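Q: What structure does this chain adopt?
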Amino acid sequence: MANALYVKGKEKILSGAINFVSDTLKVALVKNTYPQNLSTDEFLSTISSYVVGTAQTLASKSVTGGAFNAAAPVFPTVAAGDTCEAVVIYKDTGNAATSPLLAYIDVITGFPVATNGSDITVQWDGGAYKIFSL
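A:
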């Protein structure tokens, strides 16, 4: 699969329910067994059984030229035994049942990655599209 936005996430973006600079946005590592359905997956609770480690809050967020960017998140000491194929960006509401999924990103240098107890750093695309572009 290639990087994509969740359908329900696109609805929230286009209706103004998401502010990429001021909202608390997090990124979660997801297992290679996650059967993503961009059309129907809507909230973090839908995918929680596929999340590895602790989600990280995106820092230094910016929107420039239609592209969203943030600092490279670091997932500390991710327990061994899983393979992560992608990350999912979501708006954190404090409740997984109401935290909307926004983007599925799997075009990441070094992914898929086997977890081994070390840190995992997600290096976003340094080109014009950054994390993603509209």
